[in-house]
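Protein: Protein RecA
Species: Streptoalloteichus hindustanus
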Amino acid sequence: MSGAVVASLRSLDGVVTASGVAVASGDRLTRRVLPVRAELAAVLPWGGLRRGSTVAVRGSTSLLLATLAEATAAGSWAAVVGMPGLGALAAAEAGAATNRLALVPRPGDELVAVVAALLDGIDLVVVAEPERISPATTKRLSARARQRGAVLMPLGPWPAADLELSCADGRWSGLGAGHGYLREREILVRVSGRGGAARPRFTRLMAPAAERRESSPAEVGESRRDADVLAPWADSVTDPLADSLPDGGRVLPMVAG
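Structure follows.
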């Protein structure tokens, strides 16, 4: 891709080139555990999200955002694949740094290839609709996360998960006697998994009403400028594991530059 094209893309709101990502995440492997909120740290076996692990999140978008928010606020990059309904405003209200959040809302048939490519350079990769991925491929993606030192976070059941976070219960607050609106949700979180996490542990955390509140067009525009939306600007890139991925590993790329 020519320098002029890269320069033109770099000037667009919400676009960060691959070289910019590389500079921002130069120390991505120096922290072996990504931070989480104190309530979650108290019940996670590593006190945070251990690099190379697969952590499945079930039952709540609010729980997902609460889990990744602290890591992005501390400087790590996160990508969310396959969630067109997730907005930058909801992520910001949960405490996430939207300038380090990449959204791939509609990967289509490229879901596996996109996730595999993102694991090479992003600290934390969320994948929605994991039921679209075969059990054999889930194991390959978890192995890739382990090799690359990334955290893979499927939003749903995942056979190869090291940990599973689920919403066991939730209570909304904010409504009065015939007035008000849902402001936040208290979530009872269940943490279970393999090894030291075989015995379930529970914690409660407060999350904003990300799943119920609709954003105004003005708010969406303001927050979206800070979020990176990866789109098919270039034709394709080839994934190193093309033989194990559909369509030869063709993905929706980040812009090289």
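Remarks: The chain is about 25% helix and 25% strand.
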